[in-house]
Design a protein that fits this description.
The protein has 148 residues and is mainly beta. The protein starts with 6 loop residues before the first strand and ends with a helix.
Length: 148
Amino acid sequence: MNSSTHKIIGRIEQVNLPEWEFKNLDAKIDTGAFTSSLHCHHIEPFKREDEEWIRFYMLDPDHESYSDKMLEMPLHDKREVKSSNGETELRYFIQTEIEFYDGNYSIEFSLTDRSAMKYPLLIGRKFLQKGPFLVDVTQKNLFKTLKN
């Protein structure tokens, strides 16, 4: 591995989700997770013109970036995922855009209840390979620090 070709990030980084106008959300960088996940509630699949869609609220009402706006978008996938507690659960996946580090990337998120977790977003290995990104676990908000 040649670290000069990798973008170095910290264990926590701020991201933007431009499709929904969410800015400066703290995301946990988790190399132990394959998929990325997003904290949502009231997750409800539905059909729109014979296509599968999903509606949900993102974040909790007490989060500073919460918007009491129901989001709707095409369902990207649904599959079983083993959660951090070892249990398998059916999760819905969406595809959206993320502003991260030095650019905009396509990202797949599983929608799940992360209310018991400190960070509403978790970025997993599948996304980190796109950079490719190298995680310095001793740092937080490394890119934000480098930008300023």
